[in-house]
Amino acid sequence: MNFQVSQGISQTIRDQRRDRILQVAREVFFEEGFNAATMSTIAARLGGSKATLYAYFKNKEDLFDAIIEDQCSVIEKMFMLEEDGVDIRTTLTALGRELVTAMSSDQAVRTMQLIIEESRRNPELARRFDAAGPQVGSERLAAYLAGAHARGEIEAPDPVHAAGVLATLLKGELHFRRMLGLEPEPTPELVEKLVESASATS
After folding, report:
1. pLDDT one-digit tens code per residue, 56-94
2. What is the pLDDT of residue 164?
């Protein structure tokens, strides 16, 4: 029993250290760009040795992949849509609220900017991000809409197209302006307004 508890504590500490490394790595990547950032800079910012950093990630590419996976996991969780017992409008409104808030956050926007910048040198990076995050979200939303169509709740004979239209409406002009750095993070009131507008249009 004591051994199991000790293992649990040890894993918790490792997870906390890993989260801290990712947080600091993001800051360094955001400030310097992926190309200019180094493991030495990240280790110095962490206040530890490079050996500790390398115990978790073998190079900055691994670190960057972990940051992408972290961002994609946020997308995945949002699209765990319940098909039974919840009104479709309620479900899609809640999804829209979470999606607009998440996509418009400083961390999400700066991560996307970083991926776009780096993908010019490494197109495979953009493909990996798209496959691990946006594509998963689109497929799950399309599957949910297909189920709602089959149950007669909505008219969506082409659920893949419908999912794309809904996602585009939710992004709206705000996402584009956020990517250009022309708008601050939206207030909850603005998010609600955008989601209501998208729902009414769709």
Report:
1. 999 998 998 898 888 888 877 888 777 666 788 888 999
2. 92
Name the packing angle between helices 2-32 and 39-46 (round to 10°): 120
Q: What is the pLDDT of residue 156?
A: 92
pTM summary value: 0.77
Q: Please enumerate in sequence order all residues whose Cβ is within 8 A of that of 172, keeping only pairs 6 or more positions apart, or say none.
A: 194, 197, 198
- Report yes or no: 20 and 34 within 8 Å, Cβ to Cβ: no
pLDDT higher at 87 or 186:
186
Phi, psi of 60 (to 5 degrees): -75, -25
Residues 199 and 202: their CA atoms lie apart, in Å, by 5
Q: Give the integer Cα–Cα distance in Å for 198 and 202.
A: 6
Grade residue 183 by pLDDT with cuts at 50, 70 and 90. Answer: very high
**pLDDT reading at 2 higher than 50:** no
Question: What residue type is assigned to position 10 of the chain?
Answer: S
Phi, psi of 154 (to 5 degrees): -140, 165
Residue listed under structure tokens 């996976």 = 69
Q: Which of 67, 95, 90 is nearest to 79 (CA)?
A: 95
**CB neighbour class for 98 (10 Å; exposed up to 12, middle 13-18, buried from 19):** middle
Q: Convert 136-162 to b/e letters by CB count within 10 Å (16 or more is b).
A: bbbebbbbbbbbbbeeeebebeebeeb
